[in-house]
Amino acid sequence: MSVTTTGVVGAGLMGRDIAGLLANAGYQVTLVDVDSDALAAARTYHESELADELRAGGIDISGTPADRITYDPNLSALSDAEFVVEAVPERLGLKRDVVETLEDVLAADAVIGTNTSSLTPGDIAAEMSHPERVVLFHFANPALRRDMVEISGDEASDETLETAENVATAIDRKPIRLDQEYRANGLSRLSASIKCAATWELLDAEPAAIDVAATNVGFDRGPLELIDLIGLDVHLATVENLSEVYGDRYAPPAEIQSRMETMVDDGRLGKKSGEGFFEWDDQGCQIPTPEEPHDIQPILAALVNEAHRLVDDGVADQETVNEILKRGGDSEIGPFDLEEMFGREALRETLRTRHDETGGRVYDPVF
């Protein structure tokens, strides 16, 4: 299917960037959100900052992308769209309402991509008449700086999957096809394992000591900065979503869960509020210099462990899992590269030790 008109539902940080990528690729884009303030903020961002942000992400500018974006509070405005991405919050009921309404609004051959990070296309499309038109279209965060889109859908038709891959390529993102759909896809499961392990390490170390150790081994950001980036409230909601399938695999220890809930209640949500585990300002995340970095090996071991789970679950092969982390995390190394660097037996022993000490399922060895 050849796509010329597109839409995005959800004008938050991710939605507005997805709209910008689509517009920069030459597509006409309609951005929809029921919140007029969110739409106004997105318009201001597109008109004043989008071009610079695209350049900062290494993306060539095509004309004036903002001129190709229109804004509307009603899903009916998407009636002519041939490819629509939903980027609304990670609530199953909300996402189902959106895609079911889109099914009535869009033409029969239009494709619906979901940017879900903790659900599956099958979950979201379960009550639709034609679930085969829904496909995972999951961006790494931030979308303008991370060169990938994960694509999958057990019920998605071949044409739907092909259309999603073509659009991903057109917007200068690498389409990474997953072999099976699973909650949290590939990237979000890898990310969840790192963030979960980091919360366990908070029992013994300060946030800065953990994150500095992570950046010292080649990660673009530390795991606690990642939680700040997406928001502590969003992180806790994602953990709760994942618990429906994975139990407490990605859950923080009770003490840290309580600490994070208190931070949310106090409005310390991370980047969007200016304070979370770290302070944030116009220059980004301000991480103090720790007395010494924390031992990073338990977090690396948890990451490698989750990579093996992804392969065992049939989500992707080792090469693809490596590529997911490299592209999605802007990392020079993938989890199986780390396994080779640190040694399988050494990482396995670290998992055994931390699992015995904590009982945290993220450390339960599978390789």
Description:
There is one protein chain. The chain is α/β, with parallel strands linked by helices and 367 residues long. It folds into 2 domains: 5-177, NAD(P)-binding Rossmann-like Domain (Rossmann fold), CATH 3.40.50.720; 186-367, N-(1-d-carboxylethyl)-l-norvaline Dehydrogenase, domain 2. 47% of the residues lie in helices and 11% in strands. The chain contains 15 helices and 10 strands. The strands form 2 sheets. The protein has an 8-stranded mixed β-sheet, with helices on both faces. It has a two-stranded antiparallel ribbon with strand order 9-10. Strand 4 (83-86), helix 4 (92-105) and strand 5 (111-114) form a beta-alpha-beta unit. The mean pLDDT is 96.
Summarize the topology.
Blueprint: E1 5-9, H1 13-24, E2 28-32, H2 36-48, H3 50-56, E3 69-72, E4 83-86, H4 92-105, E5 111-114, H5 121-125, E6 134-139, E7 149-152, H6 158-170, E8 175-177, H7 187-201, H8 207-216, H9 223-230, H10 232-246, H11 254-265, E9 279-281, E10 284-286, H12 297-312, H13 318-328, H14 335-342, H15 344-358
Helix pairs in contact: 7-9, 7-12, 9-10, 12-14, 12-15
Residue-averaged pLDDT: 96
Strand order of the largest sheet: 3-2-1-4-5-6-7-8
Count of individual domains: 2
Q: What's the SSE pattern?
A: EHEHHEEHEHEEHEHHHHHEEHHHH
